[in-house]
């Protein structure tokens, strides 16, 4: 999708960037794994085919794709570059009251710094039909290809970032009830992941060995918004400490509070 071709979205654990040619060799290496091919129900492609696919996905208006880059774990919560307002790990947001703010670190990443972060997976939304049609749906998928980064909360945060992007971007504004996930019945970790974000199993398709989950949300709370301010002669987008200044588009659901990351221009 051209919409996100120059957009990066930064969270506290990950940065989402558009899928570009420089990502293809690593992505192709991942998709040579029989395990990942099975879990993603994909067919193996040659490197040339992978490059063709990347170019196609860049312009397809029914696919929103981001590559997931891992931000380093913060050993010192009060490190100068990253100021936390809360010592609780964002991964434990399910224990918070619905609609409560989830603090994020102050963002100081530049495009050059982002380009040095390790590539660990991808997260996608597939648009089926038109929003005006009753059968319109948006299917979500996430893959953490590097085993070292699984079970670290990065898949959850990546989903929160892309889903809130689709919910709130003025050119998308996807209705919450349109989000759907289809997962193999044996893939219990993925099922639990989506359930923790407010998805509920609505259908079991025995013939395909998969379950279908749909998002159930109460309301979108946008009382706290992105703060833009002048800095260094340029208008910067950042996160600032304090309840009134912190970026927070919180989505109130049955299980958890979501966060919306910081959108950055990614040249």
UniProtKB/TrEMBL annotation:
A Pfam family it matches: Acetyltransf_3
Gene3D superfamilies found in the cross-reference section: 3.40.630.30
Residue ranges constituting the N-acetyltransferase domain according to the UniProt record: 14-200
InterPro entries linked to this entry: Acyl_CoA_acyltransferase (IPR016181), GNAT_dom (IPR000182), NAT9-like (IPR039135)
Record keywords: Acyltransferase, Transferase
GO molecular function, one term: N-acetyltransferase activity
Keyword Ribosomal protein: no
Record field: transmembrane: none
Family: Belongs to the acetyltransferase family. GNAT subfamily.
Name of this chain's protein: N-acetyltransferase domain-containing protein
């Amino acid at each position: 999708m051209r919409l996100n071709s120059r957009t990066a979205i930064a969270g506290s654990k990950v940065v989402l960037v558009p899928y570009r040619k420089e990502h293809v060799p690593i992505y192709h290496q991942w998709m040579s794994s029989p395990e990942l091919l099975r879990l993603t129900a994909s067919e193996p492609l040659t490197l040339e085919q992978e490059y063709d696919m990347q170019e196609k996905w860049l312009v397809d208006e029914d696919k929103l794709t981001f590559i997931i880059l891992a931000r380093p774990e913060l050993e010192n919560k009060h490190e100068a570059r990253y100021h936390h307002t809360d010592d609780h790990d964002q991964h434990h947001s399910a224990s918070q009251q619905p609609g409560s703010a989830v603090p994020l670190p102050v963002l100081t990443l530049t495009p050059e710094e982002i380009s040095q972060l390790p590539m660990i997976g991808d997260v996608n939304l597939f648009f089926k039909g038109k929003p005006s049609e009753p059968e319109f749906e948006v299917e979500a998928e996430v893959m953490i290809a590097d085993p070292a980064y699984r079970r670290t909360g990065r898949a959850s945060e990546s989903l929160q970032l892309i889903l809130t992007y689709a919910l709130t971007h003025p050119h998308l504004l996807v209705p919450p009830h349109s989000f759907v996930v289809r997962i193999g019945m044996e893939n219990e970790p993925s099922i639990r992941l989506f359930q923790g974000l407010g998805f509920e199993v609505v259908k079991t398709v025995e013939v395909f060995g998969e379950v279908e989950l749909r998002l159930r949300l109460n309301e979108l709370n946008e009382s706290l918004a992105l703060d833009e301010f002048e800095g260094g002669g340029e208008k910067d987008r950042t996160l600032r400490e304090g309840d009134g200044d912190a970026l927070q588009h919180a989505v109130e659901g049955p299980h958890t509070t979501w966060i919306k990351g910081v959108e950055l221009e990614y040249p």
